[in-house]
Every structure is written in C-alpha cells, then in structure tokens.
Write a structure and sequence with these properties.
By secondary structure, the protein is an alpha+beta fold. Helix content is 44%, strand content 20%. The relative contact order is 0.17.
Amino acid sequence: MVVRQTGWNKKKADLLIVILIVLVFAGLFFWVWWGNTRSAGNQLPDVTMNTIQGQAYPLQETNGRVRLLEFIYTHCPDVCPVTTMKMVELQEQLKKQGIFGNKVEFVTITIDPENDTPEILEEYARRLKMDQSGWTILRGTEGQTKEVTQALQFYSEKADGGLISHSTITYLVDENNNIREKFGMGASLDTNEILSAIDKLVGKGS
C-alpha cells in the first residue's frame, strides 16, 4: 500500500514538472510573439501638437504610415543637425523606392518650443533640405513637449547658454503607433540599419 502511494506521488510530481515546463515555454513563446507583434517600447502618447503650418497633428494618428521620429532643437551645435542630415539621406533613398510620404513619414519635434518658432523651424528645414511632402515638423507648448518626452523616456533639460542636454534616441514607429525600434542620434545613427528596419515594416506589415 505504501509502495503504491509513493508511485502515485512520483507520477503526480512528474506530471507537475511537465506542466511547469510547458507553461515556461508557452510564456517564452508569448513573450517573443508579443515583442515582435507589438512594440519594442511603448506608443506615442495621446497628444496633439501643431505643424509649422499651424495644423493640428494628433501623435496617435498614423494614417497607416510607418514613422521615423527625431527630437531636435535648432540651436543644437552637433548631434541634432547631424541626425537630421542622416535622415535626409534616408529621405532620398526612400524616394527612390517610392514610399516616402505615402508609406513612410518622417517626424521632427522641437524640444525648445520657446525659441524654435515656426519661422525658425521652416528655415531649419529649408537649410537641411527636409522635404515636407513627407516630413512633418512639430511644435507644441512646453507642457505638451514635456508630456511627449516623458512618455518616450527622452531626457531633456535646459542648460546654460541656450543649450539643452538631451538623450540621443531616434524612434521607429509602426502603422499601429507601436514603437518598434530605437536608434541613436548623430554619428551613431546607422542609415542602413534604419532602412532595413523600415523595409521590413513596410514590406510585411506589423
């Protein structure tokens, strides 16, 4: 009688181990699937900013486009203009593919709305050859800007001399408003890597 009970307990223990293993693998599968089908981070927040033409732009509305988003301020002496120039290189490559402006949109948000007026941002776009047929430049209030940067965990702090200390992150957002990839800024921004990531999202959807 004791032997039978011990054998039954062993079978129950073995079954429990099998169930736990299955649950672990199921959890891993779900985690990988969720990461691939959702975002690599979070989403753009429910904030409406203004284009430099004065039109309302709700960040959560993608219009079915994949978006590459950068934060800049026009008095930035190094990383911001370099990032924008690299995005201009991407802009030209995406034009050749025929997807810039229809399947892919670039978005630039100033983190210095107090000083970056629409006129200054327009000059910045002209000087760096940003094609606004597929590139939206946004400006909000200080409060809206802070809400967006905090939602995306983008650090931004004003320093002396009109400079701003900030993170170096560029965001790739899919057509469902999920942040799918985060890249660097400036010299560390790999245009080939971004182009490959965009092609995957546009080619097979999210």
